[in-house]
Task: structure prediction
Amino acid sequence: MTRVYLDYAATTPTHPDVLTSMLPFFSKSFGNASSIYSYGQEARAAVATARASVASLIGAHEDEIVFTSGGTEADNAALKGVAFAQEQGHNHIITTTVEHHAVLESCRFLEKQGTAVTRLPVDGQGMVDPDEIRKAIAANTVLISVMHANNEVGTIQPISEIARIAKEAGAYMHTDAVQTAGHIPVDVNELGVDLLSMSAHKLYGPKGVGALYVRKGTKLSPLIHGGEQERKHRAGTENVPGIVGFGKAADLARIEAADETERLIRLRNALIAGVLEQISDSQINGHPSNRLPNNAHLSFDFVEGESMLLHLDMEGICASTGSACSSGSLEPSHVLLALGLSHQLAHGSLRFSLGKWSTDEDVARVLDTLPAIVTKLRAMSPLRGNLRRNEK
Result:
């Protein structure tokens, strides 16, 4: 059975060209980039080239890129770094209720350290109102953190407008662009952000490497202390193979993203339209049009997402019940609850996310398979039975 992978938002396969670029730095060119002899110089040059590639992807200067272990560390470094670098009394952060756990948990940690945090709601499509952000700003507001696009429902936020509000208030602006960098246009100057988080494995690079963009002049305390790597922003020996792979992935994304976006929108729209047409009591979650090109997030009444996921897997189809980072939790998605979905409907959700190797045949396979699965599970569902009894 040929497997269909539709969980690119969780992770992407490493592009063959990326893998090829990395391999020499595991063996032949294995040097420590901090060493002064030839092996080290070779590694240091490769890191510099990759840094320039990642910077170019988002319209930044190479001196503004700090390599990390991934998007989670980048988010932590941004929020904690800004909070710890400020003078006493400047300790208020504004964020939203639909952020990635890396931001939400960092905020909870900072609250225990005395930082005030305002979490703003979103509407039924997952959009935050910039006017609500303006109203929430206080004299001690130091940072506003709003993700560029939601990792679950795909809604794209008005970051440039929010960034203008932050600048007017004299606050820093951070955005988690893990789901957008390399997939839709991301330019730090057009967005107006001071900090931006990225992750290589979301754009066909390796796992275990990411980056934080830090605009020149931004006050930021390091999250990890030790040596003077990454211009004293992050101590520790650089992950040279991973960084090289990230650079190559950034180069490929810069060349291919525009054409890929158009193709993915076509596939995504076909998938969403087919599901809504063939399966009753189903709905799309997130903004209907202002969403990630590859994201199709759907909810189904009277059926559980985990059961659908397991049945899809038995048919060779890989999807997600929501955020892969929290798939082990029995609690419904905080994002879907924030959109106003009931616990029942939030539990009955699936996220299909397409990518480079997704095809029309993959979409057809889902549309040939999922309706029968939903029908079967609904026939066994006590939720459907309770509704029928109540209707009598």
Observations:
- Residues 16-253 form a domain with the Aspartate Aminotransferase; domain 2 fold (CATH 3.40.640.10).
